[in-house]
Amino acid sequence: MALKGKTAVITGSTSGIGLGIAQGMANSGINVVINGFGDPEQIEQERMALEKLGVKATYNGADMTKPEEIEALMEETLTLHGSIDIVVNNAGIQTVAPVDEFPPEKWDAIIAINMSSSFHTVRKAIPAMKKQGWGRIINIASAHGLVASPFKSAYVTAKHGIIGFTKTIALEVARDNITCNAICPGYVLTPLVAKQIPDTAQARGITEEQVKNDVLLAAQWTKKFVTVEQLAGTALFLCSDSAENITGTHIAVDGGWTAA
Predict the structure, then answer these.
(1) Residue numbers in the chain where pLDDT is lower than 70
(2) pLDDT tens track for 105-141
């Protein structure tokens, strides 16, 4: 089935992985709805750049901690685009701290944005997907959805939760021509990752360069950061006819991290 003309909602897509996936999908003729925070002028420039690829691109600034705003995002997509064919749950934040020093409000925010927001998008998308007889749900988890690291209790918990959520949804919609899968990236040098480097350095008592070489890439056997283009290509594959019978699973794009 051709993907051109379909509509994808991509949360947390004003920068980093989400924006890279939005660009990859727009390049394939998929209309996109981007979402996230940032400088309004910069976001508008990104939206216009997506439209220059020949698709319809809209922006919705829904706060992923607020279910009512997520619901409005999905309803607006149906109004403006007429369908919700693909949902990419990518929104995420990070805080690095020992569990006994972890700020409770940061725990709540990470669980809300990194995990619960996916429930709220999916519960609104599935009725539309069932009605049109086709849908693809892609949850951006993490290598941390498969293995743990110290000082990231909320993030690891949320990403493990996303893997379980993915499996459950896949079973529920398996006969509706809808698939649900997770992508588990290793480290991508996005603004989110760059931001946690100083915190990790402080928590471990090492330099930022040591964090990059000895912490971030320590487990990636390729010794290369994953790129947003590679993740966009994986997402597009999961939307293709070739992936019709791939559902309820995860694809690790992690340089061999979770193979060891």
Answers:
(1) 1
(2) 999 999 999 999 999 999 999 999 999 999 999 999 9
Answer yes or no: is 203 within a domain.
no
Distances from the Cα of 75 to the Cαs of 57, 61, 112, in angstroms? 16, 13, 20
Query: How many Cβ atoms sit within 10 Å of the Cβ of residue 69?
Result: 16
pLDDT tens-place string over residues 178-195: 999 999 999 998 877 788
DSSP, res 204: H
**Residue at 175 is within a domain:** yes
155 included as an active-site residue: yes
Which structural domain range is residue 151 located in? 7-187+223-259
Query: What is the pTM assigned to this prediction?
Result: 0.94
196's tokens: 């946690």
Would residue 59 count as lying in a domain?
Answer: yes
User: Rounded to an integer, what distance in angstroms lies between the CA atom of residue 80 and that of residue 56?
Assistant: 10
Distance separating alpha carbons of residues 159 and 176, to the nearest angstrom: 26
Among residues 107, 155, 165, 257, the one annotated as catalytic is 155
Residues in contact with 131: Cβ distance below 8 Å, sequence separation at least 6, in sequence order: none
- Residue 122: inside a domain, yes or no? yes
Query: For the CA atoms of 217, 222, 227, 230, what is the dihedral angle to 10 degrees?
Result: -140
Q: How far is CA 246 from the centre of its chain?
A: 18
